Amino acid sequence: MKIQTVGVIGAGVMGIGVAQNLAQTDHNVILVDIKEEILDKAKQEIKNNIRFQSLIYKKDKPTNLEETLNKIEFSQNYKLLENADFVIENVTERWDNKKQVYSLIDAICSADCVFAANTSAIPITRIASATKRADKVVGIHFMNPVPIKPMVEMIRGYHTSETTIEIAKNMLSQMGKECVLVNDSPGFVSNRVLMLTINEAVFLLQDRVATAEDIDKIFKGCFGHKMGPLETADLIGLDTILYSIEVLYENFNDTKYRPCPLLKKMVDAGLHGRKNGKGFYVYQ
């Protein structure tokens, strides 16, 4: 059965990508955020992304900009999510924020609606505990940029049912994506490895072992990575990187997850990467 209407919570980098991907695969989208200016910016970003993709990626069927935008309802009203068949949450990686959101939507959405947490590190079982539908909560860790990444990491929480897993797999298939199913653990597979790598790369920069350019050049030239760890950090957002590694540190109580002081300093200075024009590199 095709899932037709999908709620997307949070109109940041990831929420924008998820909403765009859904609209481009013929879904009706309700994109919710708390501020009108964030929603206005999201609409412009989606326009820019579609225009850029039409120039860079050749497709048999080019995306119709107006048709795609018409499939997205931009709103501050969470009440609209009562019409959603499936909800994908993308709010900031702070447990207090997520907990409030899930308590709110649990009371609004239909009993059959599945909740997918697009989180980098927070355990899915903890997220599910904020609802009365723990069996209908699953983790879907999308990769950035969402519309052109073919694979996601799906996370099974302690109570996640097989039915929910199948519904989520079907949803992803409709979006043109494959998934790898893993069990619940802070950071899952991808970010338990990636966040350590990025954090250690920042330590190398802080200790003046190498420049940002040379650190990234080694990973690209020696290992064949498309992007180095510091370029990847800028793409994800340094604030998101810091939040994620703080979650790992809190959950594992292991000093290997201690955030690099330079990373903290950069986030405090507002250097968040591509999203605001400056991180380890400067963007126009």
From TrEMBL:
Keyword hit for Oxidoreductase: yes
One Pfam family assigned to this protein is: 3HCDH_N
Write down the position(s) of the site called Important for catalytic activity. 141
Protein's UniProt keywords contain Lipid metabolism: no
Q: Sorted alphabetically, which Gene3D superfamilies does this protein's record hold?
A: N-(1-d-carboxylethyl)-l-norvaline Dehydrogenase, domain 2, NAD(P)-binding Rossmann-like Domain
| Positions contributing to NAD(+) binding | 10-15, 33, 93, 98, 120, 144, 275
Pathway info: Lipid metabolism; butanoate metabolism
SUPFAM superfamilies tied to this protein: 6-phosphogluconate dehydrogenase C-terminal domain-like, NAD(P)-binding Rossmann-fold domains
Keywords of this entry = NAD, Oxidoreductase
Give one GO term, molecular function aspect.
NAD+ binding
Transmembrane regions: none
Which part of the chain is the 3-hydroxyacyl-CoA dehydrogenase C-terminal domain? 187-283
- GO terms classed as biological process: fatty acid metabolic process
Q: Which residues form the 3-hydroxyacyl-CoA dehydrogenase NAD binding domain?
A: 5-184
User: Where on the tree of life does the source sit, at the highest rank?
Assistant: Bacteria
Q: Give the PANTHER family listed for this entry.
A: 3-HYDROXYACYL-COA DEHYDROGENASE FAMILY PROTEIN, 3-HYDROXYBUTYRYL-COA DEHYDROGENASE
Entry similarity comment? Belongs to the 3-hydroxyacyl-CoA dehydrogenase family.
- Supply the name of the protein: 3-hydroxybutyryl-CoA dehydrogenase
Q: Which organism is it from?
A: Aliterella atlantica CENA595
